[in-house]
Q: What sequence folds into this?
């Protein structure tokens, strides 16, 4: 039976924790609950009891997923924290679903993700979710960080390149995959919206502003052009 | 929003804690259910021999109508819902050992039943294994979702789960089966609904699951989470 973890990096600013209750509520009301929740504490000082309480408040089940907190020793940023979380979560699970701490999952998100892996024979891939923007309900089906990945994919690609620390963690990896292994970019449920994306003034993208768009796109292009399969990594 | 009645079925054997659960649940409905108007609480006692608990319940819900004819959960549901539908096409079925652990505004879900004639029931209570469906409505700036449940998944209609029922559901599918166990009563209703859905997909009343909301079986939550007086 397929097991799935949800990986959630949480940064140090108050805004990084402001919407955690809503995320936990959405995780607690999944039609197919997660087997494990992996919080990557990127200098956020998370408390396990508080996270458990957030889940409990809207979970009618007596059986909860294991909640793990992986504490970074210093600030890694979103891309690095996702890499750590995926590596940790896939030690025990077939899939790691990456979620922003300010977004929420629709009730069938994990069920559809697990089904999608089965439909594709369990291949190592980037199974990405369609989005719906919370404010406008506009839908988007292009690959982004709201995706489930396998350990094999992370070993094959190297995960999010360390240079992704400049911003938009998914940008470079998705570009690399579109160029070298496009068939491994797989929309879950045909790209139907499974994640509600929150736009607010303190999102990573918004706070970086237009000044970072140039470096992000330039680094993406260089990383895509020069990409080589990693010769490092642990099994 | 139209005012609605709350219907609860119960059976309280002597010397059990069932009445305690009911009183605890009723107190949570009174204090945590936010709405634009409830008419009354209709209690179907199903022949409960001792009604000392009823006096306590009247302290919590003075607008109480009580009857205790024997006939199983199906008969109690039919009687209670019929009384509720005399005054309003929508009734809230609240189960005697399901309590609210947080404040819950039910008005948007009542409004959904009023405005969407294809929906016959808004089920409350968390998803259980095997249940699935399609998200048909997500509110902007996220208040929650409505999940249209798939009749083929089975086990969707539960006589022992809270739900908002519209009279149109029973007009189409018929009443609950009487003089049988709760399990048989549920299985019968599920079966009739699923068969109807196969025959007349366009006209079968849909069942929608409201998510999220804090309405849980008392066995699955700690008592301090239910008792408003003990909340931090």
A:
């Amino acid at each position: 039976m397929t097991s799935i973890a949800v990986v959630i990096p949480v940064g140090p600013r108050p805004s990084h924790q402001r919407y955690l209750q809503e995320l936990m509520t959405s995780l607690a009301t999944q039609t197919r609950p997660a087997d494990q929740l992996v919080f990557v504490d990127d200098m956020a000082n998370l408390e396990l009891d508080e996270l458990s309480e957030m889940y409990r408040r809207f979970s009618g089940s007596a059986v909860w997923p294991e909640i793990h907190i992986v504490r970074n020793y210093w600030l890694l940023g979103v891309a690095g924290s996702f890499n750590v979380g995926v590596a940790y979560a896939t030690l025990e699970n077939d899939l790691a679903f990456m979620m922003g701490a300010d977004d929420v999952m629709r009730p069938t998100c994990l069920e559809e993700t697990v089904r999608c892996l089965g439909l594709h024979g369990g291949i190592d891939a980037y199974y990405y979710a369609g989005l719906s923007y919370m404010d406008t309900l506009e839908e988007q089906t292009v690959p982004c960080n709201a995706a489930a990945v396998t350990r094999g994919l992370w070993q094959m690609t190297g995960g999010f390149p360390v240079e992704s620390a400049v911003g938009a963690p998914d940008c470079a990896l998705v570009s690399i995959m579109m160029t070298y292994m496009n068939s491994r970019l797989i929309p879950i449920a045909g790209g139907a919206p499974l994640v509600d994306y929150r736009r607010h003034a303190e999102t990573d993208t918004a706070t970086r502003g237009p000044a970072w768009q140039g470096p992000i796109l330039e680094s993406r292009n260089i990383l895509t052009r020069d990409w080589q399969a990693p010769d490092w990594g642990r099994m | 929003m139209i005012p609605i009645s709350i219907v609860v079925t119960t059976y309280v054997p002597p010397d059990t804690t069932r009445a305690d659960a009911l009183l605890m649940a009723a107190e949570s409905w009174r204090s945590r259910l936010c709405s634009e108007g409830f008419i009354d609480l209709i209690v179907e006692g199903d022949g409960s021999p001792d009604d000392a608990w009823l006096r306590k319940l009247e302290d919590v819900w003075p607008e109480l109508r009580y009857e205790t004819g024997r006939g199983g959960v199906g008969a109690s549901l039919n009687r209670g819902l019929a009384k509720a539908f005399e005054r309003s096409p929508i009734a809230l079925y609240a189960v005697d050992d399901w309590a609210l652990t947080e404040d819950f505004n039910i008005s948007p879900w009542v409004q959904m039943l009023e405005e969407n004639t294809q929906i016959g029931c808004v089920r409350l209570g968390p998803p259980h294994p095997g249940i699935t469906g399609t998200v048909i409505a997500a509110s902007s700036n996220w208040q929650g979702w409505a999940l249209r449940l798939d009749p083929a998944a089975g086990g969707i209609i539960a006589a022992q789960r809270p739900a908002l029922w519209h009279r149109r559901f029973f007009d189409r599918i018929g009443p609950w089966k009487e003089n049988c166990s709760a399990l048989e009563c549920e299985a019968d209703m599920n079966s009739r609904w699923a068969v109807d859905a196969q025959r007349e997909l366009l006209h079968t009343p849909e069942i929608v699951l409201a998510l999220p909301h804090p309405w849980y079986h008392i066995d699955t939550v700690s008592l301090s989470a239910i008792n408003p007086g003990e909340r931090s």
The interface with chain B takes residues 22, 25-26, 28-31, 56-62, 104, 106-108, 111, 132, 134-137, 193, 196, 198 of chain A (CB under 8 Å). Residues 4-226 of chain A form a domain with the Spore Coat Polysaccharide Biosynthesis Protein SpsA; Chain A fold (CATH 3.90.550.10). Chain A has one domain: 4-226. Residues 79 and 165 of chain A are 6 Å apart (CA to CA).
